[in-house]
Structure formats: structure tokens, C-alpha cells
Amino acid sequence: MPTTVVKPIHFEDFGGVDFERLVFAYLLRAGWVDVAWHGQTGSDLGRDIIGTQVFDDEPNRRTVVQCVNRSSLTKTKAERDMRRPADAPTGKPDAIRFICRANISSERRDHVRIFGRSLGVTHADAWSGGEFEEHLRHDAEFLLRRFVEGVAFPDGAEDLRRFIGDFPDLTDDDALQLMAAVFDRPVFRTPFQGESQLPAFQQAISDTIEALNTGVWRTREGLEVRRIPSRHHIRSAAVRATLATVVEKLDLTRELFRARLADGGVRHCDCGQEDCPVFMVTEAAAAELDTARRDALRTFGSVTHGFDVEIREGRW
Prior knowledge:
By secondary structure, this protein is of the alpha+beta class. It is built from ten helices and ten strands.
């Protein structure tokens, strides 16, 4: 096979508003919720975009995203663009992120992080254009392709939301890449070992099954994150059959967990607190549940190019 070279995207070829449109579309596709595009109004209080980044294993973060379609992120601009949202009357955000078209030096990254903390913002970071491109390729390849091919993105936030949720023109490969995002969470990466925290395990498996079956992707609190293609959107009968098998294997994992709860293979610790997050898992139950999850992941990966979610070493 000939070597294929993936050339970097030249974001400098696109205007500032187009760059903001792409960032806004990416955040929607990446599963952020309550995303608002303030830059389009002209009165953004220093916030181009603000939204909530959703996590399974830590608190969600209300995040201000600054889009920097310039040749560099200077110290002066970074400080000004961080100070304004930190002092905004709507309240201090949990995080500030710069998404830039240019390269970001390690010195500038450190300054963003340290200056953010001085303002009381716990999380502050900066993505270079190359890093943004890698995230786009991982989470929203079809958006990047549309952008580079000159497909006009809508002007308004609501039109962009509909644009992101439109699936008819997606290939099966595009759809599978979007579906893969529901597996990129701790429940599918962390093994069962010894003492474990598993209160949300069963719900996470159920949410994944629902997302594959219906295209509705929810947070652990039950809030809808966004819509993705369901397995019924897939055109290939063979791939649809494989995805049906994935759902069956996930359901088996859920049933195994329930069975081990019933027979003591998985049990609460002995502290006596009903809401205690600590569980005890036998080696046999841990191996069984690891095998079931790994089987489901490998089956999904058999039809999804570049799928890299796997159970790693460590504790849940």
C-alpha cells in the first residue's frame, strides 16, 4: 500500500468568524452542553463561546472558549482575554480554554495555566492549531472535511445546531466515528480490581445501549448531551448486524453485573452507608466483567476504523 501523508490544515486561510463557527460546531459534536456562541453578538464580555464540558469521572466544567485565529497568542492578549470573563457579572467560569490557529510555546501554556489560577480559574489551557486539528479528526472528522472542502457552515447558533445534527449525508464510516465517542469514558477503560467505585457502572452501560439504539446520548445525570447516528442509520446490513451484536454484548455485561451483585461477587464495603461509592469485587467477578466489556469493545472496533478504546491497567 502506498504511504498516505495527512497534511496539516491551514486555518489561517479562513476568516475569524469561520474559525469560530468550526470551534462552536466541534464543541457541539464533542458532547458539550449548554453551548452559547457569544462572539456572533458583538457583546461577549470577552467570551467567544461558553459551554459545559461533560465528564464521567469528575465534575462538569463551565468553560469559556476563546477562539484565536491569529499568528500568535501574545502574553498581553492571553491575560486580557482571561481577565474579562473571570470578572464578568455572570460569574467566574470553572475553566478557560484558548483554541488557536498558531503553535503555542510551552512558556505560553505555563503562563496561561498560572495566570488562570491567579484569577481563581482552576483550569486554564491552550490548544494549538495542530492540537485542535487532532481533536477534530478524532471527534468530528466529517466537520473538518466539510470545512476544508468549502461547505458553508450556517451563520447562526441554532442553524449550526441543526447542521451538526443532520445525518442523511454521512457515510457509514462517518457515522461509526461519531458513535465511537460514547465508548470514550471510564466505564470502558478502567478494569475491575480489588476495591472499586462502581455506583454509576450499570447506568453507564445502559446509557451506551440507549445511545447505540436510539442516537440519544445522555450524561450520567440523564440530561441529553446531543444526538448521534443510531445503529439503524447504518446502510450496510453486515455492519448493522455487528452493531446489534455489540448491543447484545453490552446487555450481557449489564446482566453479569446484576448477577454478581446478587451473588456477592460485587458488593458494597462493610461501612454500613447506603450511598457509599466503594465496592468490593472478587477476582473471578472482575475477570468475568473485564472479559465481557473487552468483547463488546473488540466487536465494535472490528467495524470502526481507528477505534482505540481499550481496558487499561489501574483501578476503576
